[in-house]
Structures are given as structure tokens and as C-alpha cells.
Amino acid sequence: MEYRTLGRSGLKVSAISMGTFSFGGVGAFSRVASQGVTEARRLIDCCIDGGINLFDTANMYSLGRSEEILGEALGAKREKVLISSKARMRIGDGPNDEGTSRYHLIRECELSLKRLRTDHIDIYFMHEWDGLTPIDEMLAALSTLREQGKIRYVGCSNYSGWHIMKALAVADARNLPRFVTQQIHYTLEAREAEYELLPISVDQGLGVMVWSPLAAGLLSGAFGRNRTPADSRQGAGWSEPPIRDKERLWTIVDALEVIAKARGVTVAQVSLAWTLSRPAIASLVVGGLSEDQFRDNIAAIDLKLTEEELDTLNAVSRPACIYPYWHQHNFASARFNAGDDALHSNYADLGMI
Q: 3-class secondary structure for the chain?
């Protein structure tokens, strides 16, 4: 296993971490899986044996059941690993059952601690933007939780670029907890994060954790132009992540299959290896239904793609160079910094756009 520093913190996280989205199977989550304690314990042990030290969950996964199963399945192993959890999403019918208000965050953190059977959460994510709660209220609540020892580090998830920069500015101005990480969706098929989120991460020192790095299995090798596994999320009607250009998706899958065959590895390993090669990436949060899936994903750590292979994958997947980036590409490249290069390096082979 490879361990990477999480942003500008001193925390080391495994480059592959375990997602527990499939624990519980309550409500709509039953379309994904409904793993119980016994199955979860077996998969957790497999991941720990493979060097994984970070386990990711959220208060709203199966309405808290995922946290309960993770806490019970870890047992005494909890003190040897890291746990990340999240709050913000709606978890009830009341007016304060969602958001990042002081009331909601402190209540939900304390409930998560009970479900997880622990006295602290190592990384606490704001699961989604809340435009109604003042940022200083949110950060002050996180400061209280940190001072009480209930959380160690804070991060955001699914924020836009301006949301992140606003939160960082308030944190710096008022000496409140600063995000050290963000958890985003980022794959060969979904590269929108390169416009703002990766450059911000490089520039501001945020370690990126990636959720659904195989696009809910679409980049795992199990799917193709004419094959959709019946037992998949898509087969069960799960629509996340949205695919807006299926022909582009299958072109990417074709390129992955060619590289995988030539290297004697799996499509999933090639896809994960590409994501691991990208700027600011700290950890990929992978899920799985079997020990074989986790072992296969963990093996991606040892796969280093060549420049030619990276160029091939970039050519079939890079997003359009939209404004103002095409203008910067044409006229500002001589004064780019590392943050700029997180995006613009993808277009280095192009002339004027």
C-alpha cells in the first residue's frame, strides 16, 4: 500500500480507502447492496490486510445503519485505522434535519459517534454546500467539535470552486478550522473537477479524496457498449453518476481495455491508476461486494502508466477547454503556476485554441 499526506496536514492516508456506501441497505440504498455486520467484517479485514487505513461513511448512508455496521464490524481494530464521516444531507422531516447549522452539525456528529462506537471522527466532511447557513456559523461549530476532541480534521464534499474559496477565506480571516481535504467525484469519464477543484486543491493544499472512482462500476470492465450486468446499480435503476455522452464513455472504456490487455491487468486497475496519477489526489474511496474486488482495486497501487498510455487516455477523455481557460491557454501559459498546470497540462500538445 502507498500512503499519501492529506493536503497540508500531517495525516497519512492509504491511497485506496474503503467506502461503506453498501453497508445496511436501508431504503433506496438497497438498490446498491445490503451488507450486514458479518459480511462487512470480512471485507474490512480484507482491506486492512491490504494496507487500507481509512474507512469512509456518512450519517445518511442507509439512514445511519452504515455507521452502525462499520462501528460494530471494526470493533477493537478501530484504534488502528481512520474513519471519515459526513453531515449536511437531510436525515429526517424536521426543519433542522439538514444543513450545516450549529444545531444540526453538533447533533449529527454526536449521533454519528454513538453509531460508530468511537469517541472521535478522524475526518469530518461537510457532505454538500448549504447556501443558507453562514459559513462562520458552520466553521465555528466545527471548531467547537474539534476543541472537544470529537473530530480531528475537516473537509468538504461536492462544493464548487467559489464555495471552497469562500470557506477558506472565512477560515483564514477568523482563525477557524480550515478544510484540509475535499471529497469529489472524479474519473476518466467525469473530468469537470479539473476546471476549478483540482487547481484549488493544488494551490490551497487540499488533499483530494475521490468518491466512486470507477463511476459506479462503469469503468470497471464489467460494462461495455452491449453489456450491463443485471446485478449492477444501473441495472437496479441507480442513476448516479449521470452519463451525458454514452458514446464518449464507451470510447474511454475501449481505450482502457486495450491498455489493460497489453499490460496484463484489469480495466479497473488501469482506470484507478490513471486517477491516482492526477494532481492533489490523496485517496480513492472504493466500494465492493467481494474480497476479490477489493484485492483487484488495491493492486492498482502497483500499476504505473507510461506517458504514452496517459496521453492516450487524455486524448479520449479530456474535457473541452472552455472560457476563460482557452484564452489563458492562448495568452497566459508563460506565467502558469502549479495550480494552473493541474488543468492546462491536459492541453499542452495543442496549439492556439
A: CCEEECCCCCCEEECEEEECCCECCCHHHHHCCCECHHHHHHHHHHHHHCCCCEEECCCCHHHHHHHHHHHHHHHHHHHHCEEEEEECCCCCCCCCCCCCCHHHHHHHHHHHHHHHCCCCEEEEEECCCCCCCCHHHHHHHHHHHHHCCCEEEEEEECCCHHHHHHHHHHHHHHCCCCCCEEEEECCCCCCHHHCCHHHHHHHHCCEEEEECCCCCCCCCCCCECCECCCCCCCCCCCCCCCCCCHHHHHHHHHHHHHHHHHHCCCHHHHHHHHHHCCCCEEEEEECCCCHHHHHHHHHHHHCCCCHHHHHHHHHHHCCCCCCCHHHHHHHCHHHCCHHHHHHHHHHCCCCCC
pTM exceeding 0.85: yes
Q: How does pLDDT run across 163-200, given as a tens digit for each residue? A: 999 999 999 999 999 999 999 999 999 999 999 999 99
Query: Which are the catalytic amino acids?
Result: 61
Annotated domain spans of the chain:
3-314, 320-353
Say which CATH superfamily domain 3-314 falls into. NADP-dependent oxidoreductase domain (3.20.20.100)
